[in-house]
Amino acid sequence: KNEVEQSPQNLTAQEGEFITINCSYSVGISALHWLQQHPGGGIVSLFMLSSGKKKHGRLIATINIQEKHSSLHITASHPRDSAVYICAAISYNTDKLIFGTGTRLQVFP
Amino acid sequence: NAGVTQTPKFQVLKTGQSMTLQCAQDMNHNSMYWYRQDPGMGLRLIYYSASEGTTDKGEVPNGYNVSRLNKREFSLRLESAAPSQTSVYFCASSVFGRAPGELFFGEGSRLTVL
Q: Nearest-CA residue of chain A relative to B48?
């Protein structure tokens, strides 16, 4: 079992829908990243958070340290949001990043 | 600002050939990383460099060497390529620490070893 698990693996949505991607982890962490990988392959950092909630535009990331769970929400989804979303946890003991395998999102017009 | 620049973007090698992947960042970051990404698996750390002149092994270092030439550049060398090294390689950089702050990634280098 991976130390960082994402669900769902694949997600399709109609434009305008509210999207939720989940990330659960089994190790103690100091922080967690959400990353976006475009269809062309490039990876950009969306959020790094260690508690609570962060918002940027239509994207919202939350984390619950006690439940070892984080979510990425996209409001009013758009076809340009189509990408792979990756969560990566920073292990508290080793300081290493542990990556999930990603959630592939497709948003149709 | 170019951010993180990787070259080449694509490469095909025969088993046993050698090659170097180049990475440069223009953000004055201390920390640089090399990852590989394989289908169905998360990104895995090959090597890490906390600062110029220092390097450290990650999860999957076997078959690779690295060189932190200066603060800007961090290269990854395959001395004798094997089919198991077929992958997409990403270079990344961050401001500080083994527990990184915001990460910046290169566009990736797709390597095929025949």
A: A96
